[in-house]
Amino acid sequence: MTLLELLDYASVIVFALTGALVASRAQLDIVGFAFVAALTATGGGTVRDVILDRNPVFWVAEPGFILAAVAAAALVFFTAHLFESRLKLLTWLDALALAVAVPAGTGVAMALGHGAAVVLLMGVATGCLGGLMRDVVCNEVPLVLKQGELYVTAALAGAAAAILASQVAPESVALPACAAVTFTLRAGSLLFGWRLPVYRSRPPRR
């Protein structure tokens, strides 16, 4: 199994766990768990592959990805009640999933020979869109849009780190560097309150 395949599997499994946790918060049945988990797990990668005209889409070429997502959903369905704070677990699993999915998307775009702009966008899309779909479907405030938090910024910085590292190092170094930068920024935002400035409207002058 190649590094990119490992990253895709890890991304699918961890994002599926987050999808199932959100389903537990919405009190869905086991079919709902499987649906939300699979949507979360494959959403970003599907958008990536469609945009890049990568045929077939990764989970069509290897249906094991869907089976892995469903297995993760079943695991959470029977164990979610054991966790004291599902929101806290969800937040950290999502950070881990982001740190795996961004190098997966970045690596695919780089392997297909695309330029820096496309590589950056595919890293962000793969890392962010599955979670965005999850939160919208389950009527949650999307983590990707929370005020000022480093989420898309973390994904963008991670993809940029991969591009820079690839100039002087092989894929086996560039993609882990991408994961490390992404997770560090996202974790820093959660632990230390690292934020981007947000727009504040001012009352009109009289």
TrEMBL record:
Q: Which family does it belong to?
A: Belongs to the UPF0126 family.
Q: Which domain of life is it from?
A: Bacteria
Q: Where is the Glycine transporter domain?
A: 6-80, 92-165
Cell compartments where the protein resides: Cell membrane
Q: What is this protein called?
A: Trimeric intracellular cation channel family protein
Its membrane topology: Multi-pass membrane protein
Q: Which organism is it from?
A: Albidovulum sediminis
Keywords in alphabetical order:
Cell membrane, Membrane, Transmembrane, Transmembrane helix
Any one Pfam family here would be Gly_transporter
**What sections of the protein cross the membrane?**
6-23, 30-51, 57-78, 90-112, 118-137, 149-168, 174-196
